[in-house]
TrEMBL record:
It catalyses: an L-alpha-D-Hep-(1->5)-[alpha-Kdo-(2->4)]-alpha-Kdo-(2->6)-lipid A + ADP-L-glycero-beta-D-manno-heptose = an L-alpha-D-Hep-(1->3)-L-alpha-D-Hep-(1->5)-[alpha-Kdo-(2->4)]-alpha-Kdo-(2->6)-lipid A + ADP + H(+). GO terms for molecular function: ADP-heptose-lipopolysaccharide heptosyltransferase activity. Pfam families: Glyco_transf_9. InterPro entries: Glyco_trans_9, LPS_LOS_Heptosyltrfase, RfaF. One of its GO terms (cellular component) is cytosol. The keyword Glycosyltransferase applies. It comes from sediment metagenome. Belongs to the glycosyltransferase 9 family. This is lipopolysaccharide heptosyltransferase II.
């Protein structure tokens, strides 16, 4: 147990990315705000993901960082200015407690820059970030990310028996009234083929799956997924519509709320759906569903049951853990659960 002496007045959560990881951090936010209702909670988040947190009544302020631009040498001057201003602004806030849920060098430096008297991170944090903490918590590896993050709330004396995902209030009625322009079907299943690298299910299989579903499905994803989503729609014999790249993150949450069920790779939309209580059929290959699977009850994990999986590799010459997963298997599992 970490003794704070007194309840913290200001708390900073450092969890810039990714989309699924930020979703998994929401129960931690809920536990902290319930435990310390008078505290101001701030959050450091990556640009592009702020829509997941913006407008949340539990968060006093978002600190949005352009971390992807920080990697570009031609943007070095702007990066130095942004980091200097970030450090100056964070230190001025005089946080009592800072929690680094990311556990990387960048997030560790951000945590240290606050000058907070209590800086907590995981004992297993990577890239030397744990040396920037005043307190380290053993999170473990073969544990779901949600439960791992909640371990820090627990050592701060918070009750973690109730897990809740506090999304921002549902998007405006104006957007809801505009949903008809997308020609969305009722009781719609969602397909989310998005993800980088090895975790993406082949577009041909998604197309075949979409064409076999007895109702029209909706393809969701980011702008980067627009081309593959349009290809799936064109090959699905009119049995799919695409919203990939057509919604903001806030709008995507609103749309997913209306899904009957979701079939997805290990992706951000999958984690949003699970957090909203939408039944998920999660297709896993190189990643481990014990750590990053859909959280909660009522979800189904689908794998090819290859002995090499999970391998956690970002690149692989033979992604048999996904290539050998047949559309027939996915279709029959969904059908057997009476979601069609």
């Amino acid at each position: 147990m970490i003794d704070m002496n007194k309840n913290p007045r200001k708390i900073l959560i450092v969890k810039p990315s990714s989309l699924g990881d930020v979703v998994h951090s929401l129960p931690f936010l809920n536990a902290m705000k319930t435990c310390f209702p008078e505290a101001e909670i701030h959050w450091v988040v990556a640009r592009g993901l702020e829509g997941l947190l913006d407008g949340n009544p539990m968060i006093e302020r978002l600190w949005v960082i352009n971390k992807d631009a920080w990697k570009k040498l031609d943007n070095a001057k702007n990066t130095v200015t942004e980091i200097r201003n970030l450090f100056k602004g964070l230190k001025k806030e005089k946080f009592d407690l800072v929690i680094d849920l990311q556990g990387l060098l960048r997030s560790g430096i951000i945590t240290k820059s606050t000058g907070a008297p209590v800086r907590i991170g995981f004992h297993e944090a990577r890239e030397g970030s744990r040396f920037f903490y005043t307190h380290k918590v053993k999170g473990g590896k073969d544990i779901h990310a949600v439960d791992r993050y909640l371990k820090i709330a627990s050592v701060l004396g918070c009750n973690i028996s109730h897990v809740s995902f506090p999304f921002p209030p549902e998007y405006s009625s104006t957007f809801n009234s505009q949903l008809f322009t997308f020609n969305l079907p009722k009781n719609m299943p969602f397909l989310s083929p998005e993800h980088d690298g090895n975790q993406k299910m082949a577009s041909g299989k998604v197309r075949e799956l979409a064409s076999r579903l007895p109702v029209q499905s909706v393809i969701v994803g980011s702008k980067a997924d627009r081309d593959i989503a349009d290809l799936i729609v064109s090959l699905s014999e009119g049995n799919a519509v695409s919203l990939a790249g057509k919604t903001s993150l806030k709008e995507l949450i609103t749309v997913i709320r209306k899904a009957k069920f979701v079939i997805s790779n290990d992706s951000g939309p999958m984690h949003i759906a699970a957090a909203l209580g939408i039944p998920v059929y999660a297709i896993f290959g190189p990643t481990d569903p014990r750590r990053t699977g859909p959280y909660g009850k009522g979800h189904t994990i689908i794998t090819a049951e290859e002995p090499c999986a999970p391998c956690f590799k970002k690149t692989c010459d033979d992604v048999k853990c996904l290539e050998r997963l047949s559309v027939d298997k996915v279709f029959e599992i969904v059908k057997s659960n009476e979601h069609m």
